[in-house]
Specification:
single chain; mainly alpha; 2 helices
Length: about 70
């Protein structure tokens, strides 16, 4: 009989960063500063994707079994 798997790791809290940060409108409610001529809103959306991918990767690596 195998032991039941639990997903109760403190590393899972890091995933909230990727969820909460894009929900804060004052962060991206502007046109300036521009990055290579691209308004803040658009390049910040790409940064949010990178934050989400990074957070997910870190949580996966820190919580997988058999390290």
């Amino acid at each position: 009989m195998t032991t039941p798997r639990t997903d109760r790791s403190p590393w899972n809290w890091l995933l909230l960063v990727a969820i909460i940060i894009p929900l804060i409108p004052p962060l991206f409610n502007a046109v300036e500063p521009r990055l290579f001529g691209i308004p803040l809103f658009y390049w910040l959306q790409l940064a949010f994707i990178l934050i989400g991918v990074t957070a997910t990767t870190v949580v996966y690596r820190m919580t997988r079994r058999g390290r």
